[in-house]
Amino acid sequence: MTSYFQDIAPVTYDPQAKGLAFRHYDPQEMLGGKSMQDHLRFAVCYWHNFVWEGNDPFGGQTFDRPWFPADTMDLAKRKADAAFDMFKILGVPFWCFHDHDIRPEGASLKESHDRLNEMADYVQEKMENGGPKLLWGTANMFSNRRFMSGASTNPDPDVFAYCASTVKSCMDVTHRLGGENYVLWGGREGYETLLNTDLDRELQQMGRFLQMVVDYKHKIGFKGAILIEPKPQEPTKHQYDYDVATVYGFLKRFGLEEEVQVNVEQGHAILAGHSFEHELAMARTLGIFGSIDMNRNDYQSGWDTDQFPNNAPEAALAYYEVLKAGGFTTGGTNFDAKLRRQSLDPVDLIAAHVGGMDICARGLKAAYAMLADDALEAPRRERYAGWETSDHLVEGKTLEQIADYAESRGLDPQPVSGRQEILENIVNRYV
């Protein structure tokens, strides 16, 4: 144990505890023949917890971590030591990273790759000595000023090539570390103004880039999923991967709907004008559900605030959709969430995750009970029951034939209550 977390004991399940403990998350509790740990597949992200310095647009660094600024390999390894200590304290089965998170930038592209591989060796040893597995890796192609006009969509072909090399290197490391997914997070894939943007060219570049990523996945034998994370209006006003439906249309255009899934984030769903459960239901319905980033937004803010989840009804509705999708396969619950910049102490990092894990567990149990009791599905089936004997209306009929059907029977359908408030009351009984 490093000195940073040395006074914090591993967190255990104890519903009666007064201090740090799980009150709802019992990793071994069984729900339908599957442990809660296997249902939720918790992961801790590397970036917000160990890279972010606590700055915002109006203020600088507030956190004082002993590995900052992590601009040398020694400091990067010190950061990794602290990270794996925290993973052990929380008992999480997975973690996630960007290449930029775990290695300092090199003086050249090759040096950056060499440093990533050196750090991969370092963390692999920790993983093999009882550390968590890798849920997914991804490449940071948004922070550096070279990406200010996009990554794969950049007007400069040299940036496109730079990104290809970066993703290849990161996919290699993700594969070597046994990662179960690889994520493409298009933080800069969008535009500010059409005055200097060629939409068709940029979309073609983005589509070809993703096709190459999928081809390379198969070439190296990577068995995990390729995931896109929908991302609306942040930081650019028009993002090409705005929401789940937009991503699906993009995948269909380039013949990738069978190859790529989505990693859906709660905060991004809100920025896109949707609810989290809507985006998850859409991903499930379109057959591209993969994984989730669990956080929450401040509903009074127009920005992705990445706060830890604390709303049990929202979590219940989210996991309801996850369960309806058949649960996670390669995906899981990654906490893409960060402390408030006033939360300075090591214990704040632990407490934030404990609270988030408990909320997710509470939501999962409610969702599982609602499904087991048929509490929402029975009234849903009743609402659409008429279609059980009316499928002939949409199977092989023309518009004229259906019009004749309605007129010949003198149809005069009357509205039926949607019973939304009753259904909301049902949900509230479970949470």
TrEMBL record:
Residues noted as binding Mg(2+) 1 in the record, renumbered to the chain = E229, E265, D293, D336
Give the residues annotated as active site.
Answer: H98, D101
Q: Which PROSITE patterns match?
A: XYLOSE_ISOMERASE
GO BP, one annotated term:
D-xylose metabolic process
Q: What binding partners and quaternary form does the record give?
A: Homotetramer.
Q: Record's family?
A: Belongs to the xylose isomerase family.
- Put simply, this protein is called Xylose isomerase
**Taxonomic classification:** Bacteria, Pseudomonadati, Pseudomonadota, Alphaproteobacteria, Rhodobacterales
